Amino acid sequence: MFIIINVSVTKNYAWITIILIYNVFYMKKIILSVEQVRELIIKNRYRVDDMTKFLSRCIDGRYQNKLKTQNSKVKTTTQNSKTAETNLPALAFPGGDVGEMALIMATANSYGFEVDGEKVYKTLNEVIGGEENFGFHTDRHAMPAGRQGDAKAASGCGHWKQINLDPKAYSLEKAQIDFIQKKLNGLKKNKKIDEIILEGEHLEGAILLVRGNWGILPRYKIETDGGSQETQVFIYHQSLVDERHQTLCSAWLRQKAVKLYNGCDQDYLYEALSEMAENHLMETAKRLAKGLPIYAIVFEDDGEFEIKEMGTV
Ligand SMILES: [Zn+2]
After folding, report:
1. Total domains present in the chain
2. Which of 189, 214, 221, 260 would suit a FRET pair with 6, their CA atoms being 20 to 30 Å apart?
3. 262 CA → ligand 1 middle, Å
4. Which domain, by its residues, includes 267?
């Protein structure tokens, strides 16, 4: 901004070049205020489609507001000019379905119950309507030029990267991570599914914890004194995550993917899973979103919403 003032005064075109280079290569993250978050939500909210509410994406803010891949049964939900158009799943969770696999295994490790990886995977796929709906992503940085096929599936997902770097912090064992990676590589190979490749740099300026029957798109251009600037938000969709966990807990127990100790029931599993989900979210937030403000967003049915400041990571 201060450089721009200089330009208008000096009319020095060399400065303009410098500014352009600066803006392209060193785009600064904007830490989003309540008012900026309000503006973003008003433009970027969309109603959750009941048919596809259990499909997931990652908390990552770099998703395009419309997925280019075929991987989405999520329909455009525009009903009037007040809602955004998208085919992006509203259920945002660290790592998407990769994170879900990691979560149930970590919960089993931490609470000391048995888990059958194959059955957990199969049942999760049944709940989301088939392997072709399995939610995971990578990013452009993780794809070596000309050797895209060689990159491990999901290797550009920040959450999955952190789990790989520090399994202990996420209550996971190496063998479990290898098991999940094998499933992911299989998914990538069998071509039933296009791996989503997120483009560009991380520019998340806040974490949004969302409740209600509305989703939020993560990218938004905000007007600043220095012109229009790209921003993003990390999103965690609490109510869709909770609803899907209830369904998953019931299905996993029914399919004997999880065996609890005598006397422990579905409620116990749900509580354990919820607690570990919070641990996983905060572990990754600490690593990737240090210092960002957290806002709790509660939607009414008609799309109206409240924002509550929850401090910083
Ligand atoms: Zn991710």
Report:
1. 2
2. 221
3. 36
4. 31-312
Kind and range of the H or E run holding 92:
strand 91-92
Decide: 258 and 115 in contact? Cβ < 8 Å: yes
State how far Cα 32 lies from the chain centre.
18
pTM: 0.88
CA of 140 to the centre of ligand 1 (A): 12
118 & 20 share domain = no
Q: In this predicted model, what pLDDT tens digit does every residue of 68-105 receive, in sequence order? A: 654 555 554 444 445 677 889 999 999 999 999 999 99
What is the Å distance from ligand 1's center to 159 Cα? 5
User: Does one domain contain both 21 and 101?
Assistant: no
DSSP for 250-288, please give it: HHHHHTTSEEPPTT--HHHHHHHHHHHHHHHHHHHHHHH
CA of 208 from ligand 1 middle (Å) equals 15
Q: CA 87 to CA 211: how far, in whole Å?
A: 19
Same domain, 183 and 51: yes
Q: How far is the CA of 135 from the centre of ligand 1 (A)?
A: 10
244 and 113 fall within a common domain = yes
Centroid of ligand 1 to alpha carbon of 66 (angstroms): 17
CB 237 within 8 A of CB 90: yes
The torsion defined by the Cα of 110, 153, 207 and 304, in degrees rounded to 10, comes to -110
Work out whether strand 219-224 and strand 227-237 pair parallel, antiparallel, or are unpaired. antiparallel
